[in-house]
Amino acid sequence: MSSMLSHVRAIADTMVTSPAHAKARTAIIDIGSNSVRLVVYDGPRRIPFILFNEKVMAGLGASLGRTGQIEPEAMERGLRAIGRFAHLCRDMDVRDVRCVATAAVRDAANGQEFIRRAKAMGLDVELLSGAQEAIAAGYGVLSGIPAADGIVGDLGGGSLELARVKDGAVHETVSLPLGVLRLPQIRAKGPGALERCVKKMLAKADPVIETGLPFYLVGGSWRALARFDMQLTNFPLPVVHQYAMTASRAEQLTRIVSHVGRARLKDIPAITGSRVPTLPDAAALLSVVVRQLKSSELIVSAYGLREGLLFEDLPPDIRAHDPLLVAAEAEGEAQGRFAGHGDMIDRWIAPLFLDDDGAWRRIRRAACLLADVGWRANPDFRAERGVEIALHSNWVGITAAERAMLAQALHSNFGGGAAVPAAIEGLASPAALKRAALWGLAIRLGQRLSGGAEGPLLASRLELVADTLELRLRGADADLFGEAVERRQRTLAQAMGVKYRIAW
Q: Could you tell me the pTM of the whole model?
């Protein structure tokens, strides 16, 4: 059986999962110009789960443009934060702690003092260059959006990193002193000052940054700006990763933010109060950069420098794994009743959907990997549970429309029928949701026939013969067929608009 599952995984085109787990918990302490953050990771190496996440707004770079130094109060606040973080890592049994610092510590006259004091606390601070920041941000985007092809823009407190990503790799990079903490000083020089500054910096950049491409937004201030846009447009899915906007939206948001008071911005639950003061400057910079780069569209990435640092350390074979399928398999194996069941279900229903393209096959397989995650839920709420898992779990490498298809498939699998849940209406086309409902009903038939075990799936075959949905069983296994199985076969056949029969 093990060899057969390995074969199934191998032949699934571009759908590598293999949820190889990390040998131990890992953590990154990210000392930025605006904030100091600890993130502890566990789980699959390709797409580790966040076990703990804490941020302190230390403001190390707040006075950098004016004094060239980290102010004493900010330094103490930053050192207290990393001292707490180091203690937590010890108590959480984190074996691998990587502590990195970026623009503020790099550029400050007293940055080395900060590093020395951190070392005295037992932390070796790795000072990243601007190029290293840009490369890590680029790989962070590729980690969460493997097919990303464009320019990554990582806006921090002290700098803006630009990186060209294509074909799963980071190419040209540029680091510019345009962090949100430096922008007020530039904009204070008058109207058009920021545009002139950015234009001059890009003209001098070596290498030259390619224009006319999608622009991937990384960094807390730009993500907050995207969340603001989601509120303005009443976007139905509160997930910022891979949220897309037109390039012209950047200029519109700049005008809107400039006329909205801070009090109103603070009332938006998805935007933290600490980000509100940076929004006008972040919006202005985005508008200028988009014009200068002639960006074709804007795409938000929840993944950035920290995820990129983890991704860079992975061997090529694990980098190639599909992050959505790795996460779905890990979740399915953790919550399902039988190991390897998702792969079996996918293989069993595949003959009905031979004309699914690669993108749909990928979402279908994710649905199969998650086919058993609702069995512990209250039976009256299993369909809703499926929708919740699809829409709100921390998946990456999946668009809003694909989340909707996954939600529809799980909703139908867990007893919701072919009805479209209100939460996903408008997120995907009716044709896509209808297809996903058929996946769910086919999975549901397989679950009923098999009871979640592998034997009945190996002893049966499901296929479409002319205009008839045929369930074929070996004679010795005829007793697997029953009224409940027939009902689900009939339901699927009706949804497909075909007849049905059992064959021996």
A: 0.89
